[in-house]
Amino acid sequence: MRTLTRLALLLLALGACAEPGAPERLTAGRPPSRDAAARDPAARGADAELRALLAAHGFTGRVASTLEARLGRRVDPRLADVGRLLWFDPILALNGDNACAGCHSPTHGLGDTQSIAIGIDNNRVVGAGRRGPRNQRRSPMAVNAAFYPTLMWNSRFRAASGDPFDNRAGFDFPAPEGRTLSHLPHLLAAQAFIPPTERVEAAGFAVPGDNDALRAEVLRRLNAAADYRRRFAPLFAGVRAGAPITFEQVGLALAEFQLSQVHADAPIDRFARGEAGAMTAAETRGAVLFFGRAGCVGCHAVSGRSSEMFSDFREHVIGVPQVAPTVGNVPFDGPGADEDFGLAQVTGDPADRYAFRTAPLRNVALQPAFMHNGAFVRLEDAVRHHLDPARSARAWTPALLAPDLRGPPGPIAPVLARLDPRLRAPARLDDAEVADLVAFVRDGLLDPAARPERLRHLVPARLPSGLAPLAFASP
Ligand code: HEC
Ligand code: HEC
Best substitution site from 100, 105, 113, 139 to test ligand 1's pocket, by max atoms within 8 Å of Cβ? Predict the structure, then answer.
């Protein structure tokens, strides 16, 4: 013990002799040293402080490894692969020009290439050059959605148990589905019933009828595709015996694909598991702010039902500017039809207007835009917004957005009037601290396995439907 203390003191003294600022200069020219021994005493102090903060929040850095235990079985690679093909195949989109991947692209963590999603009547490009009428919100990344107890920006799909792996208390969806999807084993399998019925996202307007009629038409097309029947048959006895593919089976396959896309092994996780030097000194200082004085973890939570996803999965008003597309196919809210009422769309309660689900932050650096409507295209702006929402929102202009999003924005005063109390007196951070916080959010939360070059292999060479694939641009 005493020897250890002496050793620590010696190391401390050695560190103190090092040229001040040397570690910073190291980071400028080449990749920052992740070697703990090369750290100065301040860095080692931050390491210890961060360990204490992570322990206080029960953060383990092991959430990815809990997946199969929570599922109660192994992820089935064959089922996931059928789900992958469906993800990319316009056969699920009756309009014929979109797919899950059109909005949830492997070039962006299975998230949007846009500030606000473009659905039907698009130019079949997935990337910055995507064109077409806008829907209402940005598509979140589906990577890691396996752990989310509520889905969508206003949490309108939710596991009543607070656990997406547990359907015993039912899955709540708005009408007409209500609780009818509660028999599915995972919230994502239930969610998969919805996009093919959304007319502006995927279905279009040529096929008449209700959601069940639209699903029936999707299944008719799927069952007419021999290659799909051949792929579903080994997985489902019914299909093997000649019965049609069901929508439950489609949902199970799409969910399995998403279960296979858990990428939650970021530097912060490796640090929490005891890997000294997993994070740079700047990332560590940023993490100390995030979990400490900056108060981020108050909403971007890691404990309990958050499953270390950096969200409390509750809705808050943080005063995001209201982007209003000039060419869209979804009616917006409010007297000027230029607003998004967020949670109030679900509850009908005006007090819930402008509240959105705390964005889970893992892999957020992969996104081309931030917030429910992509109002910010630079991560630093999204972070800084929290530090003075009123000033940020009033100074905001849509100048950095795509041309069809640069029209007059919706009103900001009613949004700021409902600002979450936590953001009314935010922490004061200097520029160096903001830079550290951004370094943590950008790099400390990024699992390299979710990067575009590591997900590109998911794009199928050809589709079982024989339909023409969408064109994926490089990020
Ligand atoms: C037109 C673009 C579009 C298409 C096509 C699309 N989505 Fe989405 N997706 C979105 C948007 C936008 C949201 C968020 C909507 C909201 O919050 O109101 C979303 C949300 C989700 C979520 C919830 C993620 C979270 O963080 O809560 C999942 C899961 C999902 N989509 C899966 C799918 C699947 C599976 C398909 C294909 C069957 C699909 N999506 C097709 C745009 C799309
Ligand atoms: C009062 C709760 C709350 C606090 C505190 C908070 N956030 Fe957020 N944050 C949110 C909500 C809610 C959103 C999504 C808002 C929207 O899209 O309308 C969000 C969005 C974000 C985004 C954009 C993510 C994306 O996917 O677009 C980032 C980055 C972010 N927060 C970082 C931080 C940081 C860093 C801090 C600490 C300085 C912080 N937040 C503090 C609630 C909070």
Answer: 139
Q: Across the strands, what pairs with 328?
A: 134
Q: What's the confidence (pLDDT) of residue 41?
A: 84
The pTM for the full model equals 0.93
Which CATH code fits 267-450?
Answer: 1.10.760.10
- Which residue is associated with the tokens 């409507």? 373
Q: pLDDT tens digit string along 141-158?
A: 999 999 999 999 999 999
Q: Which of 143, 153, 133, 152 is nearest to 108 (CA)?
A: 143
Closest-CA residue, ligand 1 atom 13, reads 139
Nearest to 308 by CA among 316, 300, 318: 300
State which fold the 68-262+452-472 domain adopts: Cytochrome Bc1 Complex; Chain D, domain 2 (1.10.760)
C-alpha distance from residue 370 to each of 141, 346, 378, 455 (Å): 11, 22, 8, 21
Using an 8 Å Cβ cutoff, are 106 and 458 in contact?
yes
Provide the residue ranges of all domains of the chain, joining segments of one domain with +: 68-262+452-472, 267-450
- In the DSSP assignment, the letter for residue 73 is S
C-alpha distances in angstroms, 244 versus 6, 72, 84, 407, 445?
Answer: 73, 27, 20, 48, 43
